[in-house]
Amino acid sequence: MIKRIRFGEPFFTDAVFDDSNVAEGKAAEADDNGIIIKSDGKELIIALDKEDVVYGLGQSLHGINKRGFTYISYNTDDPHHNEDKYSLYGSHNFIIVDRVDGKKTGLFIDYPSKVIYDIGDSDKDVLKITLGEPVYPDDEIEGKTVNYDLYVITAESSEKIINEFRALIGPSYKAPQWAFGFGQSRWGYMSEDDIRRVVKGYKDSDMPLDMVYVDIDYMDDYKVFTLNQENYPDFKSFVSEMKEQGIHLLPNVDPGVKMEEGFDIYDEGKKNDYYCKDKDGEIYPIAVWPGLSALPDFMKPEVRKWYGDKYRFFTDAGVDGFWNDMNEPASFYSPKTLKNALDEVAKVSEKQDSLKLQELWNMIGVVDGMAHNDEDYQSFYHETDRGLIRHDRLHNIYGLNMLKAGSEALDEQLGKGNSLIFSRSSYIGAHRYGGIWTGDNCSFYSHIELIMHQLPGLNMCGFLYVGADTCGFGFDTNEDLAMRFLELSIFTPLCRNHSALGTREQEFYRFKNIDAFRKLLKLRYALIPYLYKSYLDSIENNKLMFTPLGIAYPLDAEARHIEDQLMVGESVMIAPVYQANVTGRHVYLPQDMTCYRVKGVEDYEEENMIKGHHYVKADIDEVLIFVKAK
Ligand code: GLC
């Protein structure tokens, strides 16, 4: 059963798709479900028992069970996914309190600004949710009211809650089957020839490859929907040449439009009043890759249409796949924050001889604070059907609306179901328009573990076409780490090797044990029929594709606390190895299963295992796949 409790006048976020099964509720009724609502809806408190598990929050950090940490929904471009971070690129305000005594409650907070979840962090037995500033109307700011919808879902199982929630937020985006092929990416492939070399590297090593991602390097001076003519003299022919070799090219598309008079896209947007502006009606510049840029106001339907039409620049050339990036929106600095930083540096440099350490640290703080600065997010506005609304109050749905622009345009230009698009930033609702990837992870073993934690949370919120940067984006990977990463990524819908400029080259053909990587990639391709079928089943039946053991086996007390194994589809369980220099791992079987230690499609050992705890050996080139016994 779903109840909606409305506070104030919520802004339409596009998260909810079908509310025909929703009953309107009152705040006073929330305590039937153990939720205490305080301060006119600004604070929700739920008591937790020792054994209760809290699931959800999409791509956020930490475990499958979210207890013991604080999380903040506020879309953030942060390439350091460390334990001390509260926010990542998406805001996925859905949680399930899975009580051991059988009562399960799902909560969805449909609110496009900041939401803070203290899940047993300050007090281990208390879940406290706090809402940030009010969204609307604009002048009703500090402290008066918050405007949002709280959806309370109750059912006998977490699985049922997910099922009902997913029906509420609507069908997930369906990627074409070719999008389950393997893709190679790197920030730093500069030219057609660089890409030809990568394709040849894979072909010569007999490794399957379906996609090559083209990062911002293809652009002319980082201007959106342009090409560097020197490096891509005949793009259309190049796209055809790649197509003939079975390769889809996927350009990166950012939101920021370089503020350069004479750049046709900038001029057009300015003339038509398509950009976000400050209080005085001036375009508000923020700096991204091209330098000072104007942000399209994607909240306006005509802007989405205009920006979406620009995709023709690529689709006319035969391109059918894209990734949307920097759409939190990221901001490296603005003229305002740059000035503050330079003033601070000037102050320090005047004092060099008498400088106090605290003054130096202050300066470093101000320089650091130039990026993604709250003051900037509070300085520009969106034009909505409810008047001008300050950006920070709608911050979390900016990426959603950018993705929507691209997704709707591609459906129109190429036909529904024929293209691939995924985004970095998102909010619930974006799952209907595309996939997402988990952003700038690092070449760390702990980030293999993190993927396992993110997958079920993302699935709960409808994000099914998902994956992480295989081998790690930041820092240098190494052969063993790359292999362990791939051993998990072969199961995720998006299977892409991606890395940052300046890091070690990590195309799989560069490592010593090419044979092992080839076998793993071919294993991925052999798994595609099962994976794609499970993916479609999850879309059609509003189910998880990656299910925590505690949800798949709700009566098994041990399964509730397994954080490093997942069910994939109906009959498979994975238990990836995510530690360095180990030759196996501990696995808990919630039922009898057959264990396959797989090096390749025709190279595996199998053993029947009984329900319970096992130590299972897994050589560096071996994947552990468990299949339910009949
Ligand atoms: C961002 C993206 C990353 C990309 C880089 C350059 O950091 O997350 O994937 O390679 O920008 O475009």
Helix content: 25-40%
Strand order across the largest sheet: 25-24-22-19-15-14-13-27-26
Strand tally is 35
Distance between the termini: 34 Å
Ligand kinds:
alpha-D-glucopyranose
Secondary-structure blueprint of this entry?
Blueprint: E1 2-7, E2 22-25, E3 35-38, E4 43-47, E5 53-56, E6 69-73, E7 90-91, E8 94-98, E9 104-110, E10 115-119, E11 126-131, E12 148-155, H1 158-169, E13 182-184, H2 192-204, E14 211-214, H3 235-244, E15 248-253, E16 257-258, H4 264-271, E17 286-288, E18 291-294, H5 301-309, H6 312-315, E19 321-324, H7 335-350, H8 357-368, H9 374-377, E20 381-384, E21 387-390, H10 391-394, H11 398-414, E22 420-423, E23 426-427, E24 435-437, H12 446-460, E25 466-467, E26 469-470, H13 479-489, E27 495-497, H14 514-540, E28 546-548, H15 549-552, E29 566-568, E30 572-574, E31 584-589, E32 593-600, E33 603-609, E34 612-617, E35 623-628
Parallel strand pairs: 1-2, 7-23, 13-14, 13-27, 14-15, 15-19, 19-22, 22-24, 24-25, 26-27
Antiparallel strand pairs: 1-12, 3-4, 4-11, 5-8, 6-10, 8-9, 9-12, 10-11, 16-18, 17-18, 20-21, 28-29, 29-30, 30-35, 31-34, 32-33, 32-35
Helix pairs in contact: 5-11, 7-8
The structure holds alpha-D-glucopyranose.
Alpha-D-glucopyranose binds next to loops.
